Every structure is written in structure tokens, then in C-alpha cells.
């Protein structure tokens, strides 16, 4: 039985105490939105020149699908947040995508690390070309952790929708590589999930954007819903 989101909000209230303690060391961590009736997720606006805004219809479509298919109760309008912002701590799930360069400043590295270790979650989706940029940046954030490929048997692939026999669905083809899901863990908790050679976020976009077939669009949305459910119940 999945943990409802209202219990997850109670968990974030407990985390609030930890991060407020961190704030005395110089970090600003407002938690106003954690008490909102609906949980809100966010898109990460990073520096470096990469197209962080690449898929404008992705998150709204995913949220609508997850709310209808899995009763997620998410705010229908995603936020946009920068990695160095105190507002980052308002969102238990943050999504990062793009094709190009990603650069986190030292202050952003520190803020993002505090966010992840304090209970936050980052989903990275390679929109083709992101890999060589995002890996060294995440190594700055979590130097003690390495990306680990998840087997199809991992619970993230079997929530409301069962992808335990296939793993990540292949949405768009680029280099004839198989789709892979990589994770970063801290003290046994997954803090980051990285979808590679999958183009999952493209599949969340409205089908007419890329000419995706309905079944391809649905597979992407189903896997995205699984990710959200896993994050809020792990």
C-alpha cells in the first residue's frame, strides 16, 4: 500500500527541523509551501548556457497524468527554481533536463547538496547531449557517491505501472544505445535518479511536439508516474 502524500508532507515537516538547524549555519531554508494543500514539484533552472527549458509541456503533462492515473494530488502548475535558491527546499521533487552545458557554482553545489542530503530528490533526464556535462557537476555535489545502474527489478520500475521486465522504455532513438537508469544514494536513500538514452521527458511532451505515437507517449508518462510514486514512498 502506497503512502499517501499527506503523510509525505508530515515527513517533510520533520525534515524541516533538520534543515532549520542547518539555516543557523548560514543557509536560508523557508518551508512555506510544504504546508500547502497540494505538493508542488519544480523544474531546475541551471546556469552554463544549457537549455534547461527544453520541454515546456513535459511536467504539466506528467502532473496531469499522475494525478488522474495514480491520484498523486500534485499541484498542476510546476515551479521553476534555481539550484542556489532558498526556495529549492520548498519542493521535494526537482526535475532537470536539457541538451547542453550545465554549471553549478560553488554556492549552488553547497545548496543542492544540503537539499539532497536533507530529504530532497533530483530527477535528471538526458535530453541527448547532457551526459558529459551533468556527471562532473553531480560529482561536485556528491563526491562520495557514484552513479549506479538500477536493474529492472528495482522498485522504481514497479509502482502503479509495471516495467520490471523491461526497465526504462525507449522513447527516442539517437545512438542505438539501450536506455539506462542510474541512481545516486546517500545512506541507503536514493537522492537522484538519472534517465539516460531514454528521452523520457520528450515523451511527456504533448505528442504533436515530436510526433510520438499514443502508446509511446503513454509509456513515458507511466514511467514518470512510477518515478514520482517511488520518490514519495521510498
**Strand numbers in spatial order across the main sheet:** 2-1-3-4-7-6-5
CATH class: Alpha Beta
How large is the count of helical segments?
7
The multimeric state of the shown protein is single chain
Our count of domains comes out at: 1
User: Using only CA atoms, what is the Rg?
Assistant: 17 Å
Structural class call reads: alpha/beta
Portion of residues in beta strands equals 5-15%
How much helix is in the residues?
25-40%
- Quickly give the CATH architecture: 3-Layer(aba) Sandwich
Q: In the CATH hierarchy, what is the superfamily?
A: Domain of unknown function DUF4159
CATH topology: Rossmann fold
Q: Describe the largest sheet.
A: 7 strands, mixed
Tertiary shape: globular
What's the average pLDDT?
87
What does this molecule look like?
This protein has helices at 5-23, 58-70, 106-117, 131-141, 200-204, 207-210, 214-233; strands spanning 42-44, 79-81, 93-98, 121-126, 148-149, 180-186, 189-196. It is an alpha/beta fold. It has one domain (5-233): 3-Layer(aba) Sandwich (Rossmann fold), CATH 3.40.50.12140. Strands 2-1-3-4-7-6-5 form a seven-stranded mixed sheet, sandwiched between helices. Strand 6 (180-186) and strand 7 (189-196) form a beta hairpin. Helix 2 crosses helix 7. The termini are close together. The model is unreliable at 1-10 and 12-36 (pLDDT under 50).
Amino acid at each position: 500500500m502506497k503512502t499517501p502524500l499527506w503523510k509525505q508532507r508530515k515527513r517533510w515537516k520533520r525534515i524541516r527541523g533538520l534543515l532549520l538547524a542547518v539555516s543557523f549555519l548560514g543557509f536560508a531554508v523557508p518551508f512555506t509551501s510544504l504546508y500547502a494543500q497540494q505538493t508542488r514539484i519544480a523544474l531546475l533552472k541551471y546556469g552554463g548556457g544549457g537549455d534547461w527549458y527544453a520541454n515546456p509541456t513535459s511536467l504539466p503533462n506528467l502532473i496531469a497524468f499522475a494525478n488522474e492515473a495514480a491520484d498523486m494530488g500534485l499541484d498542476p502548475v510546476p515551479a521553476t527554481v534555481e539550484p542556489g535558491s532558498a526556495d529549492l527546499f520548498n519542493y521535494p521533487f526537482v526535475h532537470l533536463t536539457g541538451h547542453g552545458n550545465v554549471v553549478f557554482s560553488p554556492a549552488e553545489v553547497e545548496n543542492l547538496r544540503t537539499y539532497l542530503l536533507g530529504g530532497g530528490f533530483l530527477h535528471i533526464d538526458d535530453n541527448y547531449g547532457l551526459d558529459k556535462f551533468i556527471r562532473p557537476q553531480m560529482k561536485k555535489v556528491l563526491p562520495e557517491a557514484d552513479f549506479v545502474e538500477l536493474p529492472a527489478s528495482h522498485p522504481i520500475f514497479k509502482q502503479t505501472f509495471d516495467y520490471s521486465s523491461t526497465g526504462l522504455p525507449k522513447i527516442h532513438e539517437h545512438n542505438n544505445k539501450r536506455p539506462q537508469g542510474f541512481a545516486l544514494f546517500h545512506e541507503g536513500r536514493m537522492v537522484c535518479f538519472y534517465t539516460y538514452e531514454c528521452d523520457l521527458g520528450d515523451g511527456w511532451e504533448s505528442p504533436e511536439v515530436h510526433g510520438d505515437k499514443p502508446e509511446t507517449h503513454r509509456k513515458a508518462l507511466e514511467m514518470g508516474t512510477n518515478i514520482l510514486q517511488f520518490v514519495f514512498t521510498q
